[in-house]
Amino acid sequence: MSSFGTGPFVDSATSVTSRMYFDSTYNPVNPFLRFSLLPWFDALGDLGVPIRVPGWSKFQTLDSQSNIVLTGVPDEILRHPERGTWIGDYKTARFTETQNALTPLYVVQLNAYAFIAAKIGLGPVAGMGLIFYEPVTDLPPSTLDCLIKRCSFLMEFSRKIQPVKVEPALIPPLLRRVREIYDQETCPSATKDCKDCERLNLLLQLVNETPASHIGAAPEGRADFVFGQC
Predict the structure, then answer these.
(1) Is there a contact between 56 and 69 (Cβ–Cβ < 8 Å)?
(2) With CB atoms counted within 10 Å of each terminal CB, which end of the chain scores lower, N or C?
């Protein structure tokens, strides 16, 4: 999940709040009426009910061709008994041109989740989407009494939903490319104005200054590739 200068606490709060709402609608009398989704999910049609998202140690798969372990943790997984699985990712950010430019990265992120889900028996994945929670800053004065408490204040968020096309076939070629880069004796040449390349150079400097006995490694021939929170 990406942040709007809010740090990991607000990021996790969006997921926790959604899950608390789902859990609060649990119906112990009728197990077929277990959950209600948040109202804005209605625009996506009948997605089924939320299921517990496995942790990273279970939500992973070993790609035999590249010998890379692909893992990650989606924010939300919904299952419909007939339509299959829907995977969602929450972004605590304004949907701006900058966020729009990041869409290709998000497409790969969600399709990596779809690729893993199919491998571990949570597929087929029928749909995916990004849910942007935007901090509401343009508030009328009449709302302040409801938002400001004695020792705290509440923050409102609006939401925007962006569907993402399910294309898990994107992932294997990317894993093979990762393997090619991983197996090179030297790092590829840096791309102009690449901030990640600058960070990598700094990391390499630190590694070169660290005794080899202090550096851990994956089993020989295998690479672990983690899809972290974006």
Answers:
(1) no
(2) C
List Cα–Cα distances, 151 to 9, 112, 147, 169, in angstroms: 19, 42, 11, 51
Instruction: Confirm if 191 and 197 have CB atoms less than 8 A apart.
Output: yes
Q: What is the DSSP letter of 20?
A: H
Alpha-carbon gap, residue 205 to 201, rounded angstroms: 6
DSSP state of 140: -
Spell out the alpha helix ranges (H) of the chain: 7-24, 97-101, 103-119, 144-147, 171-183, 195-208
Q: How far is CA 142 from CA 17, 146, 152, in A?
A: 25, 8, 18
Buried b (16+ CB within 10 A) or exposed e, 109-124: bbbbbbbbbbbeebbe
For the chain, the average pLDDT equals 79
**pLDDT tens column, 85-138:** 999 998 877 777 666 778 899 999 999 999 999 999 998 899 999 988 887 777
